[in-house]
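#structure-requests
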Amino acid sequence: MNEPRAAEEPVACARCGRTADPLPITWTCSVENGRRQYFCEECARANIRAIEGRLDSSWW
C-alpha cells in the first residue's frame, strides 16, 4: 500500500483518465480498498468536499 510509484510509469486520473508523467504536485492521492488512486487537479477540485469527507470515489 505504501510502495512508492515507479518513476518510469505514467500516472492516470482515476476519474477522467487524464495521464501525466511525471506526477504533478497538484494531483491528489487517495487509498481506497488498499489501492492507491490519483486524481487530477480538476477532478480533485470538483469533488474536494467528498475527498475531505473521506468518501470513496464511487460515492462521487
